[in-house]
Design brief:
Blueprint: H1 7-12, H2 18-32, H3 43-49, H4 56-67, H5 71-92, E1 103-109, H6 117-126, E2 131-135, H7 140-150, E3 155-159, E4 162-166, E5 174-175, E6 185-192, E7 195-203, H8 213-227, E8 234-239, E9 257-258, H9 259-263, E10 281-286, E11 288-295, E12 306-312
Parallel strand pairs: 1-2, 7-8
Antiparallel strand pairs: 1-12, 2-4, 3-4, 5-6, 6-7, 8-10, 9-10, 11-12
């Protein structure tokens, strides 16, 4: 009976929960210092793309805490939980929709082999956006969507595989040099009922682990172009092939604002459409406040569409 109270047991009791403490502190450090992750072989790309999902580690720390509870194990859980909540908690707050927005913007990468292009186009049209940008128009399905949108919007501008449709007049497209051999972004000025808006439609190069230099360079070129644009109201929308948590996105956000970050309501993952684990499609801006950000239901593309409501400042 006295074995439970032996000096040997007392000598080991201060170490109770030390594993959970170390594990939790290391995870918190990883969250805070993830920008220092090595880029070799695409390691940083993969980890930062799924960074919010690493919160699963918290569940492991919590389990360790419950199994061998102590003040050390409690700290091991609370520290990373607070760090994770500080980084990702605001996005999970409910959206506070303030009513009818000044402008509604949609973006969708329609994919190269969309089996139901007409339905996909109608899904966007039914939401009655003011401005729509579409990527991957070179495919047969893209051409069908092009035709459907032409019949519903008074104005359109298309450059290679990227297009913009609007209820309001637009200037001729001005190609944005992303350092590629083919056009993947352009700018136009939309003359809205609320004044002129500079609109950038973009489709960043695809990326895979270990081969992201082209995309990163394109992001920097886009950031420089937008930064030197003197317009008060700017919208940059499209498929960035870049997660919100990717360190390379910091070239654009800030100084631009992400509609999902401001509108909240969840992470707003868009890819892959069957079971989204990351957000590659974004609506960024300056001179606006986001009143809403919605990811539309799964269609037949490998991306889900994004619809955002914006109010002019």
């Amino acid at each position: 009976m006295n074995q439970a109270y032996s000096p040997a047991r007392r000598r080991h009791s201060p170490a109770k929960g030390i594993t959970a403490l170390i594990f939790g502190i290391l995870y918190a450090a990883f969250l805070l210092l993830h920008e220092l992750l090595p880029t070799r072989m695409g390691f940083a790309l993969v980890v930062e793309t799924i960074l919010p999902w690493t919160g699963i580690v918290l569940a492991l720390v919590l389990l360790m805490t419950l199994i061998r509870f102590s003040w050390l194990s409690a700290i091991g859980f609370l520290v990373p939980a607070l760090v994770w909540a500080g980084m990702f908690g605001p996005a999970l707050l409910p959206n506070d929709d303030s009513g009818e927005p000044d402008i509604t913007v949609a973006t969708h990468n329609v994919g190269a082999r969309m089996p139901q292009p007409t339905a996909a186009a109608q899904n966007l049209i039914d939401r009655d956006p003011d401005i729509v940008t579409i990527q991957e128009l070179e495919s047969l399905s893209g051409k069908i969507i092009h035709k459907e949108l032409d019949s519903s919007f008074a104005h359109s501008r298309v450059l290679d595989t990227v297009g913009v449709w609007s209820k309001w007049p637009m200037t001729e497209p001005e190609e944005v040099d992303l350092g590629l051999q083919w056009p993947r972004a352009f700018a136009t000025t939309v003359s809205t009922d609320h004044g002129d808006i500079r609109f950038y439609a973009v489709h960043m190069p695809s990326v895979r682990p270990g081969h992201e230099s082209m995309r990163n360079a394109a992001l920097r070129r886009l950031a420089t172009t937008v930064e030197t644009d003197g317009a008060d109201h700017v919208i940059v929308a499209g498929d960035f092939n870049t997660a919100s948590t990717d360190n390379n996105m910091s070239t654009l956000v800030p100084p631009l604002t992400d509609s999902r970050e401001q509108a909240r309501g969840g992470f707003g993952f868009t890819w892959p459409a069957q079971f989204p684990v990351t957000r590659l499609d974004h609506i960024l801006y300056r001179g606006f406040d986001a009143t809403s950000d919605e990811v539309l239901d799964k269609g037949s593309s490998d991306h889900r569409a994004v619809l955002a409501g914006l109010d002019l400042k």
